[in-house]
Amino acid sequence: MTATGASAAPLRRGQSRLRRIESRQALGFISPALAGLTVFTIAPVILSIVMSLYDWPAWGDRTFVGGGNYVDLFTRHPDFWPSLRNSAIFTLLFVPMNLAVSLTLALLLSPRIKGRAVFRVLFFIPVVTPMVANVLVWKMLLQPNGLFNGLSTSMFGIELPSFLSHPQWAMVMVVVMSVWQGMGYNMLIFCAALEQLPEPVLEAARIDGAKGWRMFSRITLPLLSPAIFFTTVMTMITSMQVFAQPQLLTGGGPGNATIPIVMFIYDQAFTFQQMGLAAAAAWILFAIIIGLTALQFSAQKRWVHYEV
Amino acid sequence: MKITRSLAAMTAAGAALALGACGTQSGSGSGSDGDGDDTGSGASITWDMWAGSESDIEALEAQLAIAQEENPDLDISLQHAPWNDYFTKLTTNLASGNVACVTSMNGQRLSGYHEAFMPLGEEELATAGIDPADFTEGSLDIMSYDGELYGIPYDVAAMLVYYNKDMFADAGVPEPAAGWTFEDFDAALDGLGTDGTAFGMGMGEFQWMALPIAHAGVQPVDESGALDLTNPAFLEASEWYASIAADGHGSLPPSASDTGWGEQEYQAGNVAMAVDGTWNASSYLNNEAGFAAGMVDIPSVDGERLGLVLGSGYGISADCENPEAALQVLGSLVGEAAQDQIASSGRSYPARISSQPLYFESLDEGVQDEVQAAFEAVFTGLEGQRSTDDWAQVNESIQPNLVTVYTGQSTMTDVLEQTQSQFGD
C-alpha cells in the first residue's frame, strides 16, 4: 500500500482515531479481569499491609501498633522462630531430595523404553490425588500399628519408632511423604527437557567418546541447567509455603516440631484470631521468598547455560 | 460501546449471582440475610446453627417448623454450616457485622464470643417465655460468662467414662459402677494390663482434662476467671493422668493431628476405656465394632466428684435489630415442643427437664435403664465450667504438646507451665 504526502496526515488522524476506539474496546474487554484483579488481589494485598500495622482482632476494636506486630514476632512469640526454622529445614531437605528423585526418574524413563508413558502416569498420580487421601494412606503406613511397623516386627522382629510422634522423625516423614507426593511434577518437566536436548551436541559428544557418568555430568546436566534452575526456584517457593502435609500428617506436632511458617500464619489468623500478627508474619514470609528467589536469579549466571 | 455496556452489565449480574449463592440457607424464610430489618409482625429472623449431614439438617428443619408454627407472624429461616467450619464462618460474619439474630453457641467457646451476644436479663427471659426453673440445675451456667447470661441451653452434657464390657470380661476385671473412686479406676487399669489397650489417651479439651479436674477437685481456671494451669493440685493430677501412658496402660496417639484419639480407639474396639461426653452415648451403644458398650460417671476422690456441666445453646446477637422477635424464636427453639423433638430423636440430651425422659425412651429397651442410671449419676453435683477469654487458644496450644507428654519427651508440668506463662496474666 502506498500513500501520497497529501493524504498522509488524514490517514494518521484516521489511524489514531481507530486506535483510540480499539483501545477503548480492549479496555472494555479486559475490565472484568481488571476488576477481579483489583478486588481479589490488589485490594487484599494493600489491606494486609495495613492489617500488619494494627492490633487487628477478627472483630472488635482495632488499634494502630506500627511495627509492634513485627517486633512481637521476632522477640516474644514462642512459636515464630520454631516455625521459621521448620520451614527452613523442610526446604533444605525437600528441594534437593525432590530434584534428585525427579531427575533420576526422568533419566530412567528418558530412553525409549516400552510403556514409559504408563510409568509417567503412575508417578504423576500422587500429584493429582487429593492431599487428604495421600496423607491418610501415609498415616496408615507410618503409625505404630501401621504397615511399616507391622512388616518390620513380623519379618525382622524390630520395633520401629513412632514416626509421627517423634520430633525428628516427624519432620523426616513430612519431607519423605512430600517428596513422594511431588516428584511427578518435576519429573515431567525434566522428561520434557530431556527430549528437547540438542541432538547434534549429544552426537558430537558421543563421537568424542563421552559416555556414562562423564556424558551425564559434562553434557546432559549443563544442557538441563535451565530446567533445573526453573524447578529449583519453583520448588523452593512451594516448599516455603508448605502447609497441608504437616497440618494433616502431624498437626504441626509433636509440640511445635513440624509447624511451618504458613501453618503458624493460619493458626494466628483463624484459630487465635490475631489477624494483624498473621499479616505481619505473611509479609515476613513474602520478604524471605523474594530474597531467596532474587539470590537464585543472581547466582544463575554461574551455572545456568541457556546458549547451546 | 453498546457491547461494552452490556458486557459490564452481564458481568455485574453474574458477580451478584455468584456472591449471592455463597451462603447455605434453607427453611421457610424469604432468604433475606438482613434479619431483624422489619419490626413486629412479618419480621424475618435468621437462625444460625451447625449441621454436618442431611439427617442433621432434617432434624433442624423439624425444629424450625415448630418455631414457625408457634410464631406464625414471623418469617424464620435457617442458616447452617458443618461443625468444623461453623466457628470460622461465625468469626467471618462477626468481622463483617453480619451475624444471625439467633446464633447457636457451644458453651466451652462462649468466653471468646460473649461480646457478640446480648445479655439476657429477667425482662428478656419473660419476653421469650422462659422460666429458668424448667432447665437442668446449673445448665444456665453453660451459656453464662462472668455472671451474665448470654443464651439458653438446648442440651446439656457431661463427661463419662465409657468402657468395653467384652474387654473387661475377657480380662476378668469387674465392671465399674456408679460412684466408683480413682482407686477403683487404677485397679481396673492394672487388671486390664500394660499392653496399651486399657485406656485411650485423650487429646481433646475435656477428653483429657475431665479426669485431672475430678482427681484434683479444682478447675484449671480459678474463681476470679484467671488461668490456673499450674495450680499444684491440678499439676499433680495431670501428672497422674500422664502416668497412665507411661505405665503402659494407655493407647498413645501416633500423631498430634489425631485430635480425637482416645474416643476413636474406644469406638474401634481397641481400648477398654475412654473418656467422652454424653453426646456420644447412643453412637457408642450402637458401635460398628460390635462390642457391648457400658458407661459410668467420672471416678470420685473419697466420694467427692468434681464434674462439669457442658452443652450448647442459642443466644441473641448483640446487634440484632429486632431482639423482641428473636427472643420469641429463641423461646420456641428451647420450648417444650422443640425440646421434646430433640429428645425423642435421641440426638442429644435436652436441657429442659420435662423433655429428658423422652431421650431414654428413644434408646433400645435393653440399654434404657443402664443409660438412665449413668446419666442420673453423672448429672448430679455438677458445676459450671469456668473459662478465660482465650480458653480456646489455650487448648489449641496444649493439644500438640500432649503427644510429647504421652511419649515421654516432655512432662505435663513443663507443658502446663509453658502454656500458663504464655496465656496467663
Automatic annotation (TrEMBL), chain A:
GO biological process: transmembrane transport
Transmembrane segments: 26-54, 88-109, 121-141, 169-194, 215-237, 275-295
Pfam families: BPD_transp_1
Gene Ontology CC terms: plasma membrane
Keywords (A to Z) from UniProt: Cell membrane, Membrane, Transmembrane, Transmembrane helix, Transport
Domain ABC transmembrane type-1: 84-296
Topology in membrane: Multi-pass membrane protein
Subcellular location: Cell membrane
CDD domains named in the record: TM_PBP2
Main location: membrane
InterPro entries listed in its UniProt record: ABC_transporter_permease (IPR051393), MetI-like (IPR000515), MetI-like_sf (IPR035906)
Family indicated by similarity: Belongs to the binding-protein-dependent transport system permease family.
Name of the protein in its database record: Sugar ABC transporter permease
Organism listed in the record: Ruania alkalisoli
Organismal lineage: Bacteria, Bacillati, Actinomycetota, Actinomycetes, Micrococcales
